[in-house]
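Final report, Chapter 2: Outcomes

The project's central promise was a pipeline that accepts a single protein chain and returns its three-dimensional structure in a standardized token representation, suitable for archiving and comparison. That pipeline is now operational. To close this chapter, we reproduce one record exactly as it appears in the project archive, with the input sequence first and the structure output second.
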Amino acid sequence: MARQKDKGFQRMDMSQAFFDKSEQELNALRTSVATTLQNDMLRLVEEELHSDLVLTNGTDSVKAHRSILQCRHCWKDEWVSRNSHPTFSTIEVKGKTSAQLRSFIR
């Protein structure tokens, strides 16, 4: 009988070890997916892939993604000119340099 209790204890240790290992794997997977998504989003912005919006200051223009900008609170910032409607494909942003426009979309 003593042996059966020992085996039961050993099984509990194995299941805890399995649980710990599965938690580590899950955390590694989460980190991997988050890193991949971050890199993909950065690539969309940097390479201007599939952009559906152009921000311009009158002389310079920057391609952007409407869905990314709409997720941010700054989409309704006062420096987006009031006469630009968010459904237009080009939005004029007055008084900002090209570098500031690029910083805005990142």
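Archive annotation: The chain has two domains: 1-47, 53-105.
This record, like all others produced under the grant, will remain available to the consortium after the project formally closes.
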